[in-house]
């Protein structure tokens, strides 16, 4: 089956391309959700029709004849590794957020208009998920109460928003751990959603790093309820951009 999709500018990551997690969520939704892994091949363009070719177990997003992303069903869900940081309570995340230096974060942000983690987005327009510190240098948290505007009339939160919320926290964990690293973008992402949150539910979003390999930066993220129930989790590989790629993504760091 072939359909047309358009990524609205609201859901940008870099200024001229879609937020990686949101685009991955669109791909996962086209396959019926469940256990899905998505590989991003090129910056997803905004505000123009793209072609989504859907099979039973795989889908491809194209800009004309150029592949943008490939999604496939997977046999195994994304699980939390035994060595992962333990979930923290909502109040602990609130305390971490209260100590967060938003102005310093804004000054060093490559894409301050990003739907998920951009400090220039207003409440209710973007998710505003920032990397609050914990007692581990590879683990970051943020309290999240999804804005009412994100829910539909029946009180449901679309899974694409959860994929977006799982995106940047894992990348930000790397950027906070290696503050002088060149810009990174999402390469692959797999996620498992156990349930969607209810309106006004208090959540904690967490991200942490794994072992780096060359320009690849593997990382994990998770969304927990206020008392530690796992709602969703993701495994991602971030790619450190080359000088040529930085130009394509309009990254500002020289």
Description:
The chain is α+β, with helices and mostly antiparallel strands and 254 residues long. It folds into two domains: 72 residues, Roll (Thiol Ester Dehydrase, Chain A); 159 residues, Thiol Ester Dehydrase, Chain A. It is built from five helices and eleven strands; from the N terminus they run βαββββααββαββββα. Strands 1-3-4-5-2-8-11-10-9-7-6 form an eleven-stranded antiparallel β-sheet. A hairpin with a 4-residue loop joins strand 10 and strand 11. Helix 1 runs antiparallel to helix 4. The longest helix is centred in the middle third of the chain and has 19 residues. The protein is globular, with a radius of gyration of 17 Å. The termini are far apart. The model has no long low-confidence stretch (mean pLDDT 92).
Describe this structure in a few short sentences.
This protein is of the alpha+beta class and about 250 residues long.
Number of helices: 5
CATH architecture of the largest domain: Roll
What is the name of the CATH class of the largest domain? Alpha Beta
Low-pLDDT stretches are none
Order of helices and strands: EHEEEEHHEEHEEEEH
Mean pLDDT metric = 92
What is the structural class? Answer: alpha+beta
**Percent of residues in helical segments?**
10-25%
The domain count comes to 2
Q: What is the third-level CATH name, the topology of the largest domain?
A: Thiol Ester Dehydrase, Chain A
The count of strands amounts to 11
